[in-house]
Backbone:
């Protein structure tokens, strides 16, 4: 069982995700990022430690990302029927951006068991 108090969190997600009002947000190839205030309505959805429904986190695309969320990065739980489906985030540190197989490898390498 995990909680939001455990940091850093490792999230697996699609590197490009749609935003409200059209358009999409793209994660950088590597490093820290923060969405501009105007894009924070939706943010990105990620699976904590790679666990959850892949389609909720945009993992139906070809490019995946692994993002580390530190204590000062805000996250919001996305639930349905009492079950955590994903975490919404607006800032973090991209550890990896590329194909899905590499994303899974980085999640495992970072100490997670997806």
Residues:
């Amino acid at each position: 069982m995990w909680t939001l108090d455990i940091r850093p969190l490792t999230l697996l997600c699609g590197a490009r995700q749609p935003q409200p009002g059209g358009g999409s947000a793209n994660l950088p190839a590597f490093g820290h990022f923060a969405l501009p205030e105007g894009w924070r309505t939706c943010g990105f959805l990620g699976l904590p430690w790679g666990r959850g429904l892949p389609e909720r986190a945009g993992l139906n695309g070809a490019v995946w990302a692994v993002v580390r969320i530190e204590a000062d990065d805000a996250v919001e739980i996305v639930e349905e029927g009492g079950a955590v489906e994903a975490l919404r985030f607006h800032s973090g540190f991209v550890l990896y951006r590329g194909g899905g197989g590499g994303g899974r490898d980085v999640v495992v390498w970072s100490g997670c068991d997806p």
In short: The chain has a mean pLDDT of 86. Helices lie at 100-109. The two ends are 13 Å apart (CA to CA).
